[in-house]
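seq/struct pair 1
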Amino acid sequence: MPAQIEQTNRNGGLTLVAMPGFESLAVEVKNRLEIMGAKPGRVPTLVDVVYPTFGTRASGEPFLKLGKDHIGGHDCVVLTSGPGTHEMLCQLFLVLRYLAGRRAQRIALLTGYFPLARSDKDEGALEFALVPLIIDLMMAASYNRLDRIITADLHAPQAVMAGRTGLITEVSLVRRILQRVLEDAKTLGLPLCLALPDDGAAKRIESAYTEVEKSLGVHLPIVFGAKRRATSRQSEIKELFGELEALQGALAIMLDDELATGGTNDHTAAALKEKHSAAQVWAAVTHGVFCPGAETRFTDPACAVDRVYSTDTIPFTFRPHLTPLIQSGRLRVISWLEDLIKLIYFHHWDLSIREMR
């Protein structure tokens, strides 16, 4: 940690703004940040947490209660995540407007899953790409005072170009996911093979893949698909390429950015087993969206996916319908808490997130 960092921050004291469902996470992050700041080589970091109060008037119109305490003159980081439902987006825009109106010194948004991230290109004649719209609305809500958006593993790399240069900081959790999955895979004693949806995914994970191979001393053969996406909701793997012979008798690890309905994962896993004789298939994703009905698919004994790994960028704490899937061991959750804490620390002290370790 650079010695020249001062003990006071020009952006004010650090305040976490906990959106609904993120209250307990904010407290845990606060406690861990303050512990980390007390370690040698770190800067002492005191953290405040504020809890916006949302409600609905008799007319059905939403309202927000949020005072100036710990906001005026502070470095405010909003903790939230997609999916970008009507309610989530409305609450987010209200909070951004209040933070600007309460004179926050700096405003940042930390959203594990970027809302409407899959809408990164026009879908036919009737639907526009909406990522630029979401950025425009965030900026308008904050009077253009939103300083930064930090998010994990965007569906499409070009999304970082939305808004002004440097507005969006994307972090990759692929290394953390791969490391956890491979550590668990060792217990099976099966040969391993990495299965990716397309060659674009292969390029995105290349650096993380190389790091994990080196740190764990393993070699992972790779196969990748020719993925055809009809819409943001429907896709299909048409054909597989790469080291196909490595699939026979292997544990195939399907790695992707997110899992929505699980249909593509199930169909691809079935093909890996039936056409290429894979012994087991695990799906590993950054964002476990789990659209309605997905839990039923993965609970079904006939599902070709033997196990699913997902980070908690979209928290599971307020999705109790997925608890049985977790308890059964079919769904394994990989915490991104350590990354979250470091991201906030590095952001608050104006350190390079790209160099974060």
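seq/struct pair 2
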Amino acid sequence: MKFALIAEFKPDDPKIAEIRPVHRQYLAELREKGHLAISGPFSDGSGALIVLEAGSKDEAEALVKADPFAKAGVFASYVIRPWNPIFVNRSILPE
């Protein structure tokens, strides 16, 4: 089941640039394990969208809490919602 994480960043937080490499490595590991469908920051720098593959909302929450951005407090706030993709570009987001 897919879960959309919508995260907001603290404006101009210097930890974003500092922790980004470790955060991206964590996301790469999630992708390798089949837990990451797609991710990326919003172009205005306000946050990010991360679509996770997890068995339950609790599992998705655990994946988020283990993210270096979450541990460092880069996420000012976030929401996790179950997501049901209807139209999918298979080269971007496989079922």
